[in-house]
Amino acid sequence: MQRITVTVPDELLAHARADVEAGRATSVSAWVAAAMQVRADAMAALDRDLDEFYRSRGPVTEAEIDDLVGLTGLSAGELRRFIEERIAEASAGAARVA
């Protein structure tokens, strides 16, 4: 485990502290770690879903990216980069197999 320093919006810190006071988290650090885990899990699920989507339907359209923005909380640019990285990784893997 590592100690880090992060800057967060005041309202998020207030939520974390309220959850600690209410017993829904053991500490602000635990609350942040749980939020990071949720994000990591969501990105892993998105990675799996996009892989399946791409294999079954082909490239993701702009309209589908717009839909994913609302579902993931990522910006369209972040999603495009994420998708492009996954396509590049899949292509590199396919080239290694071929």
Describe this structure in words.
The mean pLDDT is 84. The chain has 98 residues and is mostly helical. It has helices at 10-21, 28-57, 62-72, 76-97. The protein has one domain (10-97). The longest helix has 30 residues, at 28-57.
Task: List low-pLDDT spans.
Answer: none
What coarse outline follows from CA principal-axis ratios?
elongated
Biggest pleated sheet? none
> Element order, helices and strands?
HHHH
The number of domains is: 1
Q: State the distance separating the first and last CA atoms.
A: 40 Å
The proportion of residues forming helix, as a percent range, comes to over 70%
User: Could you say which structural class the secondary elements and strand pairing correspond to?
Assistant: mainly alpha
Approximately how much beta-strand content do the residues carry? Answer: under 5%
Radius of gyration: 18 Å
Write the layout of secondary structure elements.
Blueprint: H1 10-21, H2 28-57, H3 62-72, H4 76-97
Which features does this protein show?
4 helices; mainly alpha; single chain; 98 residues
Provide a brief overview of the structure.
The chain has one domain (10-97). Helices cover 77% and strands 0% of the residues.
